Each structure stands twice: as structure tokens, then as C-alpha cells.
Amino acid sequence: MKRAFVYVTDEIGFELARHSAVSLALSQSEPCDIHIFCYQFSPRVPRRFSDAMADLRANLIFHDIGDTAVEEHQTHGHVTTPTLLKPLAVGKLVNDYDRIVYLDNDILVFDDFRIEKINFGRTPIAAVIDMDVSDTGWLRHSTGYRDVTGTSFLGGYFNAGVMVFESKNLDLKEISEKYADALDHHDIACRYKIDCTSIDQCALNVIFENNWTRLPASYNMQAGAKFTSEWKTTMVRHYCGARKFLPVSLFRNDGRDVRYLNRIRHAIGLPVTRYPFLYELPFQVNAVRKYRSDALIRRLLRALLARNLTATVLNEVWRPAQ
User: Fold this and answer.
1) I want to staple 270 with a disulfide (CB 3.0 to 4.6 A). Which of 55, 208, 265, 311 is the partner?
2) CA-to-CA dists, residue 63 to 38, 92, 178, 220, angstroms
């Protein structure tokens, strides 16, 4: 099976993408083709970075990317224009790869994705449900957040930070047309969220509504779960929101973060953070402080785990709701 990993970034996000790409190369059991699509800049690629990736059996390929019609749509906050170009980047690789993994640049990968084990059936995409349980982020259509026990339909809306595409199930022409239409409609009103700022994510959910394979939360453990037990051992940490894994910070990065980032930075010749163990205690203090307010995200994760345990597809991967 031929697979590709994809990032889309602007110049500001390139440093995060660089660290994320190294984490990916460190964690995969097989050689990686890593495609970095660069929006409105030409990257300066340090020799230590390219050498380290070669040593890790990662083949780095850089591309320019742009689409005037897509770029005209307004983005908000930490959601930047390059995020609108995800489908375009994936589409450029469909004819060359069996499976394509798109990753946001604010992600650290700790373990092997094992994407060859995902059973897509006829669905074109696999992803993890969105874990935004904030007051402004409630999904209008999903009772799975407010009542995560006793509901047969848990989360019909996925997070677009990690998406795995099955090339043979993709209709690029249809996706392009639907995506353009969904972006236009989102400029008027969002069908999923109140006060929505996730234009690309909502448009992708419109395209693949009820036609995606649900992955276990560990494939994309989002930052809302940062102070839960699941965050400690998850395969992927997604630092969605305004604050990322860099710069390293007390109360926000734990020892696992700092040790792994030190390994990444050592590989590419950058300064490391001293005494990683000192970051663990402040992080745990923060976890205790937030324990009561994180009750809902813990309930959601327990419900997801229970659903995984009863799944019959490849011991972890769920089928899409019909």
C-alpha cells in the first residue's frame, strides 16, 4: 500500500509543521512520503532538518499551493487561509497514493498510525469526532455531547485536523464542487455551530456527512482533553486552538511533551529544554484545578471508549452511522 502524509502551511506555521513532520517520521514503522504544501512562501530548509528526515527514512516533498476562489473566503482567529486548501492538496496526490493522511501543523505524533488496518468500506474518509464541548462550540445537531450515554448516534461531526483518505473512494470533481458550494453557504450561516469560526471543517463535514469512518479518539486527541488520563498515552496530540506545543510553557506542556520535543529538536540541531521533569508537576496542578470543569469531556471520552470496545471492525475502527 502506497501512502502519503500531507501538511498545508504558511510561513508563520512552518516551524510547527517542521516539528510535527519530525514527530511523524520518528513514530512510523515504515518509510514516509511527507508532502508539505506551502502557501505564499518558499521555505528555507535547514540542512540538519533535511538530513534528519533522510536518516528517519522520510522523503520530504515541497509544493506551492493556491486557489484564488477558495482563498477569498473569510477565516477567523487561529483558522488561517491555508486551512481552506486541504482538499486541493489531497486531490493533487490521489492518483499517486492509495491512502493519504492530512495533518494540521499543530500535531505531535507519538505512535504508528497503522493506516493500512483501517477498514473504509465504501467511505472516502476516516476521522475522529470533534471534541469541542465549549459553550460556544455545541453542535446543533448532536445530542451526543449533552447526553453521551444512552445515545445511539454519538457525534456526527468530525475534526479536520487529522483525516485519512481512501483514494479509490474519492470523486475529486464532486468534492471540489460540493466544497465550493459549502464554503459559499458557510459565509452566510453555519449549519452546525453557533458563532462558528471553523469554515473549512464545517464545509468538509457537509461534503462527507454520514459518509465517513469513525476512528478512535487516539488518532486525534484534541487539546480540550489535555487534562484527562487519555491525553497521557494517546497516539496523537492535537494542540488545536490559539496556543500550540511551541513555545514550551509551564502548566501547558507536560513531561511527555517536553521530552519528545527535545528528541525532535536534538535531531534537527535546535536547542532543547532543560530538566523536562520540572514541567510535570505544574501540569498536574493545572489538571487538578480543571478537574471539575472537564467533567463533560471525560464523559465524552468514556462514551467513545465504550463504543470502541463494542466495535467489530478491526478491534478499534468504527463504521459510519447510516
Assistant:
1) 265
2) 6, 10, 24, 25
Percent of the chain at pLDDT exceeding 90 = 76
Q: Angle 47-28-218 (CA atoms, 0-180°, nearest 5)?
A: 120
Q: Flag whether pLDDT at 310 surpasses 60.
A: no
* Strand residue runs (E) in the chain: 3-9, 32-39, 58-65, 99-103, 107-109, 125-129, 158-166, 213-214, 221-222, 236-238
Ordered by where they begin, the domains of the chain are 3-246+291-310 (3.90.550.10)
Query: How far apart are the C-alpha atoms of 55 and 262, rounded to whole Å?
Result: 17
- The dihedrals phi and psi of 314, each to the nearest 5 degrees, come to 55, 35
pTM: 0.90
Angle between helices 14-27 and 255-267 (to 10 degrees): 90
pLDDT tens digit sequence for 17-45: 999 999 999 999 999 999 999 999 999 99
pLDDT digits (tens, 9 = 90+) for 75-102: 887 788 999 999 999 999 999 999 999 9
CA 313, CA 119: separation in Å to the nearest integer? 7
